[in-house]
Amino acid sequence: MTDDPDRHAMKMAKKKAARDKIMATKTDEKGLIIIHTGKGKGKSSAAFGMIFRCIAHDMPCAVVQFIKGGMSTGERDLILSKFSDACAFHTMGEGFTWETQDRERDTEMAQAAWEKAKELIRDERNRMVLLDEINIALRYDYLDVNDVVEFLVEEKPDMTHVVLTGRNAKDELIEIADLVTEMELVKHPFRSGVKAQIGVEF
Fold first, then answer.
1. pTM for this prediction
2. How would you write 94-141 as a 3-class SS string?
3. Do 62 and 89 contact (CB within 8 A), yes or no?
4. How far is residue 38's CA from residue 139's CA, in Å, rounded to a whole number?
5. What per-residue confidence (pLDDT) applies to 98?
6. 165 by DSSP, 3-state: which?
7. Cα(164)–Cα(117) distance, rounded to whole angstroms?
8. Which of 7, 69, 101, 162 is deepest in the core (most CB within 10 A)?
9. Pair type for strands 33-37 and 128-132
10. Is-contact 52 63, C-beta < 8 A?
11. Residue 163: is its pLDDT beyond 80?
């Protein structure tokens, strides 16, 4: 960086021209398959950020929660109380598998959640469908990843965005995705004895 204002302006103008040239080639639009995975915090939080963007732009959207059914969350309460006309919200899970301790019941709930997800994705009015924690259901083999991949490749409408969250995303899903973000854990307060807190985790 330079302290000379004229040199700085020239450098930034050159950078802008190069950037504009690149951006002029980016003209396509399509419905994306988006994955948020990794051990770090923020996978669902980032996905709900996109859901709220859709709501703000009057774009119908939907959420299916595959695991987080046992507790109230800020995003669910806000959407159900203020934006239920813009965003269909379906909490299908009953908590994490170590809480339910019933694999057969967890599998049934995951299968029901997937059927609801397919229904919402097929509805072309929904511009975005968030499948929250579906990667956990896939990790525990409550769902067949091949069924999920086949559906997304063969049946997802061209302009519908589908967001899949949860740790340990399957390679088969990553292969077909358009956008994959891995949240990397650097530090987490849980390791220092701090519990999950309202407004941060839920």
1. 0.88
2. CCCHHHHCCHHHHHHHHHHHHHHHHHHHHCCCCCEEEEECHHHHHHCC
3. yes
4. 13
5. 52
6. strand
7. 11
8. 162
9. unpaired
10. no
11. yes
**Residue 94 CB: number of other CB atoms within 10 A?**
16
Q: Cα–Cα distance between 111 and 137 in angstroms, integer?
A: 9
pLDDT in tens, 138-154: 999 999 999 999 999 99
Question: Taking a C-beta distance cutoff of 8 angstroms, is the pair 55, 86 a contact?
Answer: yes
Provide, rounded to the nearest whole percent, the portion of the chain with pLDDT above 90.
Answer: 66
Name residue 23's amino acid: M
Burial 23-35 (b: 16+ CB within 10 A, else e): eeeeeeeebbbbb
HSE at residue 6, side-chain half, CA atoms within 13 A, is 0
H or E element in which residue 145 lies:
helix 145-154
Which residue carries 């949860």 as its tokens? 166
Q: Is 61 left (phi over 0), alpha (psi -120 to 50) or beta?
A: beta
Residues constituting the chain: 202
Per DSSP (E only), the strands in the chain are: 33-37, 61-65, 87-91, 128-132, 161-165, 179-182
Q: What is the C-alpha separation between 146 and 123, in angstroms, rounded?
A: 22
